[in-house]
Each structure stands twice: as C-alpha cells, then as structure tokens.
Amino acid sequence: MKIIGLSTLSLLVALFLLPRPALSEDGALYHLGPGDVLQLGVFGVPDFGRRVTVNIDGSISVPFLGEVKAEGLSIHDLRVALSDGLVKDGRIQSADVTVEMVEYRPFYISGDVSRPGAVPYRPGLTVRHAIALAGGYDALRFRTENPLMTAPDLKSENESLWIDLARARARAISLKAELNASNDIDLSPIYSAPLQRSTLDEIASFEQSDLKMRIENYAKQRAFLQSSLQSAEATITALEATRQRNEEAIQLQQDAVDRMTASAAKGLVMATRIDDERHSLAEIRSQQGDSESRLVQARHDRDEIARNIEIQDEQHRAQLNDNLRDTTIQTEKLAAQIKASSEKLLYTGAVKAQLRGGSNGGPELVIYRKTNGETTQIAAKEDTEILPDDMLEVSIRPEQMMAPNTQ
Q1: With contact defined as beta carbons under 8 Å apart, do 137 and 394 qualify?
Q2: Distance in angstroms (rounded) separating the CA atoms of residues 198 and 208
Q3: How far is C-alpha 367 from the chain's CA centre?
C-alpha cells in the first residue's frame, strides 16, 4: 500500500482537499436515492425554497406539486421534472428551478476495520479513503492502522521480555548451584534466547559474580558462627581441666586436713593449724563450684551456637528453595508473556506485509453494489471508487503463524 505511513488524520485532511471529479456540476453521473438531502429553490419565489430528503419510497415533498418521484433521477433530470411540473401547474410562468445536493446518502463498510458501519459519502471517495474514515485496518480487534509504528514498540517489548527471561533462567541455575554449595554453574541454556551475544554474556557474567558474592557472604556468616563454636569448645576444655585440677586439689587438701586432725588429737600440732587447712579446703571447693557453674554455662553457649548454625543452614536452604520457586514461577509467566508478545509481533509483521501488497496480495476488498435492482459483487482495489449505498467488506486473513519457542 502506498500510504501505509500516513496517519488517519492526514488521510482525512487529504480527503476533504481532494478535487471531486466523480460528479459533474449538474449531477449527471449521480442518481438520487433514499437518504439524499436536497436544497430546492425557484428564482424569484422565496417561499418555494426548502430542504428535502428523499424518502424511503424514493419521493420528495415539493411545494405546489406534492410528492414527486426522485429516486433513480440525476439532479439534472429532477430539475427538469420540477420545472416542467411547475409550468404545467400554471402557478409559475417560467420556473428557474435549482436543485443542490446538501448531503449524500451514506455507504457502508464492514469487516476488519476499526469502526464498521455507515459512513457519510463524499464525491471522489475511494476504498483507501473509506478505510481511513472507518479508522483503518483492525483485525481480531488488534489495531494495525499503522503497523510500521506499532512493530518497533512490540519488538522492544518482546526483547525486554526475553532479557527478563534470560535473567530469570540464569538466576534459577545459580540458585540450584548455591543449594549444592557450588561455584560452578553452566549458563549455556540462556544462550538459546534470541538476543545479542554481548547481552547474554553480560547476564551470565553478572550471575556468576552474584553467585560468588552470595556464597562468600554466607560462608563468612557461617565461619563466624563456627569460630564462636570453636571458642566455646576451647572454653569448655579449659574449664573441664580446671575442674579436674580442683578435684585433685580438694582431695589432697582433704587428706591434709585429716592428717592434721589426727596429729592434733595426739597433741602434735596446734588447733589453729587445723583451721588453716580447713579454710584452704573451703576456698578450693568454692573455686570448684565456680568452675562447675562456668562449665555448665559454657556447654549451654556451645549448644546454642551449634543450634544457630543448624538454624542458619535450614533457613538458608529454605530461602534458596523459596527464591527458586519464585524464579521458576516468574520464568513461566515470562514465557507466556513472550509467547503472546511474539504472536502479536508476528501478526503485525504479517499484516504489514499484506498492507504493503505482499505475496498474499493485501487485504481482500469486495464492494457489493446495487445495479438495476440487483446486487453485484466487485473485487476492489484501494483506488476503486466508492458510491453511495455501496457495501465495502474488508477481510485480513494472515497465514497461520507460530510464536518462537520459549522452552
């Protein structure tokens, strides 16, 4: 099509600026029919002037003459008939009758256009103008009035969706590797996306770096807890050694007290010596009690740290599984969106090819026109002239198309 890039507004402006060669000045090429609106007048008779519409029965109401048959007549023939009728009526000696076309009856358009229905007729209308007045081509309610402008937007949307899908697939792969505590990932599946190699390399590089950073951060957190656990174990070992030494010291001190007590009974040592030994024994037992309390606390701290490590591992795996599930769902949604976007893009391309007159020959345009009471079917082109009462049928039937595989 020669005017694919022209907007509907431009078409409408151009339409009303076109010359009107379809009808001669006296209307000899146009036959009146129901719905036509005429302005009647007689020179020198102001009361005669009026606007009339051709009725459904093909007649018009004329002053002095009543109902006059107009259907099938040209404007010239109607003017002659009215002049002859007024002269014969005897009221007007020389009737200089004027008949002007005020509004033509409409034509009709149906099929793959935006606004099917009745369209006001103007002289010189072609099929191209008619489609512009009906809002442009529109197949399956998908506006294709200007596919040259629609296609780039759809292509950009489609490419963005593919980038998002490649990222989601890369993230799913890295999450699975992280669940296995592995830095090695195979991102080759993302290279099936119809994107530039540099874009896919950038996505792969980012995911590799992000996976490495996530693993390192988790390793640091776990190393801190492991260090705390080792410190707790060392504290327990030291406290157990202290307790063992205290037990030995208590036993030795108890033996010393027993010996002093026996010697005092024999009068060999003073009683104050026994008191000193017993005081030392009490101090050692106090130290032992403190060590036992600290050992219990240290074991509790160790167990708490070990449990925190287990909880951290469990939460980390649970979070990874949640992220993997969400990423998988996102991947499925993006795949569905890409399928829809690709179908629209392919459809737009097919319609664009049709509108340019591709191998399918463009849209199918058929005019149904009444001639002598019979309806004839005319295979039209965009330059075919439209007449009032014509029914223009527009059909766009692009070949069956398949969207790119997103699996």
Answers
A1: yes
A2: 15
A3: 38
